[in-house]
Amino acid sequence: MAILLNHVNYIYDEDTAMAHPALIDVSLNIPDGQFIGLIGHTGSGKSTLIQHMNGLVKPTSGQVLFDGEDINEKGYDKKALRAKVGLVFQYPEHQLFETDCFKDVCFGPKNQGLPKKEAELRAYEALKQVGFDDEYFYQSPFDLSGGQKRRVAIAGVLAMRPQVLILDEPTAGLDPKGREDILGLISRLHKETGITIILVSHSMEDVADYVQRIIVMNSGRVQFDGEPRQVFAHYRELEEIGLAAPQVTYVMKELKEAGFDVDENATTLEEAKNEILRVFK
To answer: How far apart are CA 253 and CA 247, in angstroms?
Structure first.
């Protein structure tokens, strides 16, 4: 169930003096099963782009296709689309509203028209899938920590069994341990389920060890799109648009410049470790 964006443009406040472009001629192919990092500084167009993918926003021009169908054609079932392309917002409070966590996760499947028992089974499975402890099932979601709230928000989307999971800044505001836990959870979900995952972030460090492909947004355009080592090779250009490559990239570049025969394009800690051990044996 691939997503295809075909020359998508979006203008905020169109036909007013405040009009400004948020997306400019964006064309992307999101194939089944890929783990993608969508990176960009604040205002680069990341959030606007993902809202096009499940029909929350309609392009000013261009097409968004899901499984070959234009999602903005008259009569297209947007409710069914949003069950297939699940979006977890940056702030989980925006999608948590029930009196307890279990009811909250049940809401999506119930809204799909599933019987109560089936909805509850899906909710239970989704909460266990994200590593949520049973003792908190019937606690108010608003009494939870930031990391726990994100787990419940992710479970609420997973309970609808989406084919694409989009997470908007899922580690925002978390401490290093919380970030590592959530990113590890997302990586495990991808490995176990094989669903397409789009992880939105402004941090290269957050995606370096996990994703298969990085899309870099800058001022509404796609600046780079490729495998991590291809994108990180442009670390100088990334710095110019307010981003930075992972620290390991800079370490490997410095070792190379110092005369050590390392692969300067190593992108993960594991790759860097192996390269350094190879050279210094």
So the answer is: 10
The pair of three-digit structure tokens given for residue 273, joined into one six-digit string: 């470790």
Give me the CATH number covering residue 43: 3.40.50.300
Q: Is the distance from CB of 243 to CB of 41 less than 8 angstroms?
A: yes
Q: How distant, in Å, are the alpha carbons of 6, 30, 158, 217 from that of 27?
A: 5, 10, 27, 12
Full domain range(s) for residue 83: 3-228
User: Does some domain include residue 18?
Assistant: yes
Outline where DSSP puts E strands in 40-90. 61-66, 69-70, 85-88
Distances (CA, A) of 142 to 48, 82, 109, 146, 252: 27, 24, 21, 9, 43
CA distance 26 to 48: 11
* DSSP string across 232-268: HTTHHHHHHTT----HHHHHHHHHHHTT----TT--S
Q: Report helix angle 101-111 to 146-158, nearest 10.
A: 20
Structure tokens at 259: 């005369």
90: CB partners within 8 A, 6+ apart: 47, 168, 169, 170, 172
- Is 161 strand, coil or helix? coil
Mapping DSSP to helix (H, G, I), strand (E, B) and coil, where does residue 160 land?
coil
pTM for the whole structure: 0.90
Rounded Cα distance between 243 and 16, Å, is: 32
Is there a domain that residue 265 lies in?
no
Rg over alpha carbons for the chain, rounded to the nearest Å, is: 20
Number of structural domains the chain divides into: 1
pLDDT digits (tens, 9 = 90+) for 120-154: 999 999 999 999 999 999 999 888 888 899 999 99
pLDDT digits (tens, 9 = 90+) for 67-115: 999 999 999 999 999 999 999 988 777 778 888 999 999 999 998 899 9
